[in-house]
Amino acid sequence: MQRLRREFRRQLEGGATIVTFALFMMILLGFIGLGIDGAAVYAKRQHVQTGADAAAFAVAQEYALTGCVEDEGLALTYAKPNVPNENDTTGIDKVVCEANSVQVVASAEQPPFFLQAVGADPIRVPASATVEWGSPIEGTSVIPIAISYCSYWDAFGDANIGDTVNLNIPQPSDLTSGCDYGDYPAGGFSWLDPTGGCEAFTSVGNWVPGDTGNNVPSECSVADFLPLIDRLFLLPVFDDNRGVGSGGEYHIAGYAGVILRSFHFNTLSGNPKSGGTPACAGLPTGPTMCMLLEFQGYQSIDEEFILGPVTDPNTLVIRLKD
């Protein structure tokens, strides 16, 4: 009798083990399924976020200067190519315009891999992007230099977005711009007094200290300029000046959006004095300084400057807010 009882107990315990193992495997597979489907949803959200960013930038660039329009068709045109495999499910949930910003909410479906076995429906994955725009009114100039209004128009007056311009320093006078160079210091440029390292803080409508001399500020070295190659920055433009030499001051009127492609500053101490390839194409003979700049105009995107109302369509900043 005891033998039968022991045998029955072993069979009972064995059955319980099988049930426990089965339950454990179901739970384990459930976690694996959730992990795989969760990773797929996360990846899809990254794609949808990229699409929402592109859509918001597209709407901002199209309508920033004329008044924002909640153009879902334009937004969808830019969102869909950024969401692979499920383009036919990509949609624009809403486009919301405000004073100087636009929000785009996009979404796409992610079909589950494991959870579809239990009848789960495709998961709708949303993402939101907000882009703002305005004219830059103050910020830190990564190259402590400002050019005169005349120099700006001589160099960039006929430039289109993406054109490369060789900005000589000093910029030769060209009366076709209609500017009177007699109203500005010789050369039409000024190095600014650095406010930190080799950078200078500037603000529109205010005076900043500088130096009418040719020498690069002593705080600057080629190591400060090399990391700036292929980087977008805003070049200050002044419309008035007062004082001479180290006592000079310059009235900042606005900024030009440019990408630095190369530079040559012959007054830098030590070598090299240039960066980029080539170092200012068409460099004139004799000692000089120059920057090879790609004009970006109103399409400039910069995170360092404070934005105000749109005052100059040529230097409109469009940037991602969140």
UniProtKB/TrEMBL annotation:
Transmembrane annotation, as ranges: 12-36
Origin: domain of life: Bacteria
Alphabetically ordered keywords of this record: Membrane, Transmembrane, Transmembrane helix
Domain (Putative Flp pilus-assembly TadG-like N-terminal): residue spans on this chain: 15-61
Entries under InterPro entries matching the protein: Tad_N
Protein name (Swiss-Prot/TrEMBL): TadE/TadG family type IV pilus assembly protein
Source organism of this protein record: Ornithinimicrobium kibberense
